[in-house]
Write a sequence for this structure.
């Protein structure tokens, strides 16, 4: 992790084109979002395709606080994160309480995102409805003020910010080692986990809340970086799906899976978009979709599972002779 | 006025029910969520659109082409995408992701081929209404409703009275037991998937005269179809019909009283509540040994 | 006199119209092996589910060391010192055997590293040390049963509830399992549900018999073997008497 961070820090100093930097920022953004998604959906296996709801809540909260009260996005993102946690509790508590699992949980998550989407359109007096909202641009002369307002002229500072977010996201996940094991156990067999002394609901809710908080913070970053949001792009199904995809393709339920997925998928889509999107609209996403389907069919546990698969195969083969010998001996 | 709202709500509900029947079948029997469901609907709508504008084939007649074509497409998709994913630990997640990817492919295929324009066809039913005891019924939607009821009755007959139907029900209840009884589960799955896709194709045909066609039209119907499937209960076609009618009525009422967005929010809230409080049949297995 | 560690008093549980547990009372004494027998569907597993909080009891009380534990969630009960195994073993299929055991060690370990340090020891006890890297999904029936036992042991319980850990094993494997359970008895109290008469008669200090959700007999193995009601419950339904 440290090495990777160092490499990425060095990249900062490379003389890259604006487009290349943009791709890097986006990649790290999705790596961060996928890491947040992964905590609940990968480790605990509750597949959410509605995480954009929390992104939107985070983004709109900090944006509204900034445009109405000039509150710095740094505090705004904490506020947005907390609101997202509240929204998550509204859905997570009954879901876990009533034992909503498998596709039913996924459908519920989609519904929550749709509700947020429609409410954002409905509250047009505040949110601008489907036309969206722009971030009030503040022309700054001092670095301190730029930092406080989290608005910069070039792409480089955003790169550093998102690099930091992503690192913190990984660190948080890594530090939660015990919880990660609990979540995996809960994912594999909830009853067996409970019988061993693992509090199912408590751990699921912890994971869900941290997950919502993280992607909500990502929402604030999105606003600051793109300076414009609308319900379709920030609460829509595509964003939800993309978070899930980077994690699943990379390997959900693994520390680096979402990052691997993001580094593979995002540059690919962006380059496809650049080269093909302009000539034939849709072609790049068409190819992207095909790639996804093929990936899922041939590597259902994601790229990060490759070493594990190889190791397990080896362990199985190694065991065969001894297995025979030890038969009948308990 | 009240009767008018109810009548339009019922007609809309019938259409929703028709859209969701195929999803219900696939969900109920194979236990997979087909997120590309609405996109198959969209493809069928484009098919109908072009058969009409290019070949001059009446939308209702084009059923004869679309339905068998969609059976074939269904078989193909099942063989290529769904079957390799079945029977593994990650089946649920992966089929959802794979069908979402498939939806992406179909939407963007449509975008590439036909641009994002909204298209509509005019038939001899367009704009026409039937008047019935002072209530105006849109002709297109009335026919859609009739087809929906016919499909429901036909499906009920097939599932309850034919041998294939018995097999499908057996597989949907317990695949292992069905296998022991000598039923070819794979064949039933293929059949169910193909038929489910063909039914949504049929729905697409029926919708074309009264709805705009555009690449992402499926997304709208997708959410609706899922709500109805859960609302009505898995594998229950009367349930789908009733669920469709309820949602149609809610939309029709809320659309008049509040705003279109609140109507959606309201339907979605009902959907969530049903998911939470009606665990039987919609909750995964929780039996202990 | 033996020290009472778990007291079950008049517990009832019905599923719909079916009384799966009907006014059952018994005590578990510290350090003993208590056998529970009864025909299929008698309600043995249900009693385990009730003790460990997987189902709420309809009425009655369950007291562990002077503390009422009915109404607590399964994880809390495990923390208090009661761990059960499942009749149909429940390995975590996507985790390796070592991780299966690690997860079981964790809830009572202060640090993750403490739990890690315990894994090998537990794996050795249940003879799965050579399988540490194999996935839970890839085990044989016998190995699943051993893993089930290993996970329960990893929680270091005071009372171990074993639900049919012998079913499906070959005679030799049963003997090994019995030796292991006798070994465990030195430090733990054990309640064991078993179908195989040879095992239960051999291993238990006391036996209670359930039939149709009711306790129909209680006593020493010898007494149970001669009890008419028990013989009827088994033979009356054509269940074959083992050994
Ligand atoms: N979750 C449940 N729902 C409904 N009935 C159940 C449930 N669990 C057990 N039963 C019923 O309770 C009775 C006792 O079951 P069980 O305790 O598993 O028997 P045993 O373990 O003695 O074979 C059986 O008739 C069984 O069908
Ligand atoms: Mg049992």
């Amino acid at each position: 992790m440290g090495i990777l961070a160092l490499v990425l820090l060095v990249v900062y100093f490379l003389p890259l084109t604006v487009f290349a930097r943009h791709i890097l920022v986006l990649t790290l953004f999705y790596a961060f979002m996928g890491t947040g998604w992964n905590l609940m959906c990968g480790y605990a296996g509750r597949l959410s395709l509605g995480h954009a709801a929390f992104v939107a809540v985070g983004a709109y909260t900090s944006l509204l606080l900034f445009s109405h009260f000039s509150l710095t996005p740094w505090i705004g993102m904490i506020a947005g994160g907390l609101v997202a946690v509240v929204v998550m509790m509204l859905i997570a508590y009954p879901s876990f309480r009533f034992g909503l699992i498998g596709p039913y949980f996924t459908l519920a998550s989609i519904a929550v995102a749709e509700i947020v989407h429609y409410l954002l359109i409905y509250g047009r007096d505040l949110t601008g409805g489907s036309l969206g909202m722009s971030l009030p641009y503040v022309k700054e002369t001092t670095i301190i003020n730029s930092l406080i307002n989290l608005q910069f002229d070039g792409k480089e500072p955003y790169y550093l910010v998102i690099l930091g977010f992503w690192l913190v996201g990984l660190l948080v996940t890594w530090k939660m080692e015990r919880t990660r094991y609990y979540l995996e156990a809960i994912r594999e067999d909830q009853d067996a986990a409970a019988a061993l002394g693992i509090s199912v609901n408590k751990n699921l809710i912890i994971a869900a809340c941290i997950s919502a908080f993280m992607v909500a913070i990502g929402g604030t970053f999105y606003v600051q970086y793109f300076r414009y949001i609308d319900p379709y792009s920030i609460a829509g199904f595509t964003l939800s799906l993309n978070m899930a995809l980077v994690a699943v393709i990379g390997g959900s339920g693994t520390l680096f899976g979402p990052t691997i997925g993001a580094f593979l998928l995002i540059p690919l889509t962006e380059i496809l978009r650049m080269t093909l999107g302009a000539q034939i609209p849709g072609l790049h996403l068409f190819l992207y979709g095909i790639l996804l389907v093929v990936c899922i069919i041939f590597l259902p546990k994601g790229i990060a599972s490759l070493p594990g698969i190889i190791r397990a195969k080896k362990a199985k083969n190694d065991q065969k002779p001894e297995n025979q010998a030890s038969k009948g001996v308990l | 006025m009240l009767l008018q709202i109810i009548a339009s709500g019922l007609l809309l509900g019938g259409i929703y029910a028709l859209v969701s029947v195929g999803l219900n079948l696939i969900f109920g029997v194979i236990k997979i969520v087909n997120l590309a469901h609405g996109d198959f609907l969209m493809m069928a709508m484009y098919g109908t659109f072009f058969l009409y504008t290019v070949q001059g084939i009446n939308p209702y007649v084009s059923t004869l082409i679309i339905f068998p074509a969609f059976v074939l497409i269904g078989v193909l998709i099942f063989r290529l995408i769904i079957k390799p994913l079945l029977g593994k630990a990650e089946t649920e997640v992966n089929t959802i992701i794979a069908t979402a990817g498939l939806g992406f492919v179909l939407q963007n295929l449509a975008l590439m081929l036909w641009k994002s324009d909204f298209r509509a066809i005019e038939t001899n039913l367009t704009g026409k209404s039937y008047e019935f005891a002072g209530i105006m019924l849109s002709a297109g939607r009335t026919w859609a409703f009739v087809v929906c009821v016919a499909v429901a009755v036909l499906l009920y007959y097939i599932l309850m009275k034919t041998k294939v139907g018995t097999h499908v029900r057996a597989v949907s209840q317990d695949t292992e037991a069905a296998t022991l009884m000598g039923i070819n589960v794979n064949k039933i799955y293929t059949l169910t998937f193909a038929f489910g896709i063909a039914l949504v194709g049929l729905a697409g045909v029926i919708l074309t005269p009264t709805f705009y066609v555009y690449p992402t039209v499926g997304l709208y119907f997708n959410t609706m179809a899922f709500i109805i499937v859960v609302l009505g209960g898995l594998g229950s076609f009367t349930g789908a019909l009733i669920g469709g009618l309820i949602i149609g009525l809610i939309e029709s009422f809320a659309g008049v009283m509040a705003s279109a967005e609140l109507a959606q929010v309201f339907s979605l809230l009902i959907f969530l509540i049903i998911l939470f409080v009606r665990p039987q049949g919609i909750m995964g297995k929780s039996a202990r040994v | 006199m033996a020290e009472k560690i778990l007291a079950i008093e008049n517990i009832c549980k019905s599923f719909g119209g079916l009384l799966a547990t009907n006014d059952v009372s018994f005590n578990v004494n510290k350090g003993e092996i208590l056998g529970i027998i009864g025909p299929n569907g008698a309600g043995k597993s249900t009693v385990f589910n009730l003790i460990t909080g997987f189902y709420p009891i309809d009425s009655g009380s369950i007291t562990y060391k002077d503390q009422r534990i009915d109404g607590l969630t399964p994880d809390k009960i495990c923390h208090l010192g009661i761990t059960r195994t499942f009749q149909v073993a429940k390995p975590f299929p996507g985790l390796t055997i070592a991780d299966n055991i690690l997860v079981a060690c964790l809830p009572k370990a202060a640090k993750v590293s403490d739990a890690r340090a315990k894994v090998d020891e537990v794996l050795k006890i249940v003879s799965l040390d050579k399988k540490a890297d194999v996935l839970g999904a890839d085990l044989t029936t016998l190995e699943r049963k051993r893993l089930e036992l290993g996970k329960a042991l990893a929680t270091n319980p005071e009372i171990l509830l074993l639900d049919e850990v012998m079913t499906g094993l070959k005679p030799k494997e049963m003997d090994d399992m019995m030796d292991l359970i006798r070994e465990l008895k030195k430090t733990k109290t054990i309640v064991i549900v078993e179908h195989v008469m040879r095992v239960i008669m051999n291993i238990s200090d006391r036996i209670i018999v359930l039939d149709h959700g009711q306790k129909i007999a209680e006593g020493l193995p010898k007494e149970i073997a001669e009890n008419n009601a028990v013989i009827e419950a088994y033979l009356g339904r054509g269940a074959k008497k083992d050994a």
Chain B has eleven helices and two strands. Strands of chain B lie at 129-132, 135-138. The interface with chain C takes residues 89, 288-289 of chain B (CB under 8 Å). The domain at 2-277 of chain B is CATH 1.10.3470 (ABC transporter involved in vitamin B12 uptake, BtuC).
